[in-house]
Automatic annotation (TrEMBL):
Region Disordered, annotated ranges: 41-73
Organism: Micromonospora sediminicola
Protein's name according to its UniProt entry: Sortase family protein
Feature: compositional bias, Low complexity: 41-61
InterPro entries membership: Sortase, Sortase_dom-sf, Sortase_F
Gene3D superfamilies (UniProt xref): Sortase
Residues annotated as signal peptide: 1-22
Entry-linked SUPFAM superfamilies: Sortase
Any one Gene Ontology molecular-function term assigned to this protein's record: hydrolase activity
Keyword terms, alphabetized: Hydrolase, Signal
Amino acid sequence: MTVRNRGALAAMAAGAAALSVAALVACGSQPAEDVGADEAAALATSTPAPSATPTTAGDASVPVNAGTLPADGTTVPPVRLSIPPIKVTATVNPVGINDRTNEFEVPPSVDQVGWYRYGPGLEAGAGSVVIAGHVDSAEQGKGAFFRLRELDRGDTLTATGSDGEERRYRVVAREEYTKTKIPLDRYFARDGSPRLTLITCGGPFDPKTRHYRDNIVVTAVPS
């Protein structure tokens, strides 16, 4: 997935492998209609984050900053994610952009998920902490976010930071977008109310492109 266009960005959590018919039916099924979209939108502001500098001009892209994780320890990366309603306990790894492919990287093991390290950490008082994960893989089976589409408003989850602190969140929205239409500025924003954004794939699976058509986005707020 390149960072130069919206469709490629939104494919970051793609289960981009051929599936059995049974898996296709399960993974490609539509979730219940979107819930909490207005509340999710209200958490963000329209003001661009001043520290986010796109790699190229043109279409909206993932906000990528030069450098790696801060050495001073001020950023608190999530290291573990627990979502009891869908029976998820997953290791969270810091991820960025692949230097060779310009693609958003997620952990190769589908039972792990990736935190976008160029965005806010768990300590941040503003902005969207983005965690993306695979829905499935032909080789490895169900991914950590296989059941993400089942989350509903009021469900709770816990993100544990590198500082050992467990932070609780409450789901306020679940939305589904065609990958070319996902509002990236909202979900990768460094401003607005603090929130946790979980992203994976959904909708029908296209065997020709070996990708799902849509992205499932779950928004949660500190509780």
